[in-house]
Amino acid sequence: SAGRAGRGGRNAGRGRGRGRAAARLDIGAGDRAAGSPAAALQQRPLRCARCSGSWEVGQHMQNLPRPEVFWCPVCKFKVMDPFNAVVEPEGVLHYAPSNDNGKLEFKLELPELRQWRRDNMCIQVRMVRVACTKLSHNWPHTLHFSINGGEIFSVLPPEEGHKRRDIPHDISGNLRHGRNVISVRMIDERPSEFVLGIVLTTPRGIPELQTQVGLCEVRAARERIRGILARQRRAGQAARVDEIVCLAPDTLKLRCPITMGRVEDPVRGKDCQHLQCFDLEAYLTSNRQMRAFNNRWVCPLCTYVLRPSDLVVDAYVRDVLAGTSSDIEEVVIDAEGAWSCPTLPAARERRPAAPSPSSDVDEVDLASPSPQRRPCRITSPASAPFMPSALAASPAKAAPAALAKAVPPVLGVGAANVI
């Protein structure tokens, strides 16, 4: 079937099923190296960590930082875009590595094209680098793609000072029922590093992607948290005094880092090492709205790449959310994995209000026929009202006169005596 590497190093697979398009891969012979052991290593095919199929990397072996996590191009085509999923099992219609001259030409049989269009399916062109460990779509420096003698699209170098955004290209409307002749011309420093794929895709909505998310039960989630906190304590104890150790806090934040609101459906990556979760629907929606195709699916709390199948709903965090009111933004987790709501110190909670800086005196109403004393509150200088502009003009000369007018006589004594 399409994408399956045969033994001996040479593949020629055909898609099976009713009218499926032929899918083939042409790679060189297997271990045919002659000479140094280093040359033999470069010619030895690599095993895909996802499908266990073999793929000859050849001269690009030296560009692989970690061969043990190698993914074959076919698996990259299938997993690349969850919103446009490759139809299984034979949705990879054709794939082929480029060569040193950067030219590809092949025939594509599409006997079911009309039915695919009625089923709202699309045919896309995708391209990846063999030696790139990141699951991303990559066009060469320049590419011209033609169908049946007519150019359909071209990829040009980015303008100076700009970065090009590489995305797959939909060619559904340019194909015809039956046989199609595909021609590709590319220019790049290493054109043989690229692999082109023609894939049949079907759209996936957010509700469908949510069904791909797994579940981490409460017990397993609690053990995970205990392990994270234990590793942090050991790292802090082993560090020297002059070392700086980055430790995650023992508080679990209940707000989503994407929406800044309370998390509704808490998810995280299966291998993420942080306590906080984020909201599932917010994560899927933000990735769907992101125009930079190769920047999608990055955890908002760490650097892990998380597609829907890499996520799990954290049942422990879900129970914490259910057991706290909506105004609680975080909880404290102890070494055993038990959580509690943070509280203010008791002294701070019972602290009385500070008394107002003022004092009470008696005021006599001299205008009254029978003067009576009544309490009067004189404000201290710290909270005194704003003085008239006469004080600000010349403090040395204007202050006595202004105060004489501003302060009324108290207890029958003149203002000058009060001052």
Strand content: 15-25%
The level of helicity is 10-25%
Low-confidence stretches: 1-41, 345-353, 358-362, 378-407, 409-419
Tell me the radius of gyration: 37 Å
Mean pLDDT: 78
Straight-line N-to-C gap: 104 Å
Structural class: alpha+beta
Coarse shape = elongated
Count of DSSP helices?
11
Number of strands: 20
Could you give a short account of the major beta sheet? 5 strands, antiparallel
Structural account:
This protein has 419 residues and is α+β, with helices and mostly antiparallel strands. The chain is built from eleven helices and 20 strands. Strands 3, 4, 6, 9 and 11 form a five-stranded antiparallel beta sheet that branches. The protein has a four-stranded antiparallel beta sheet with strand order 5-10-7-8, with no helix packed on it. A hairpin with an 8-residue loop joins strand 14 and strand 15. Helix 5 crosses helix 7. 26% of the residues are buried. Residues 1-41, 345-353, 358-362, 378-407 and 409-419 have low confidence and may be disordered.
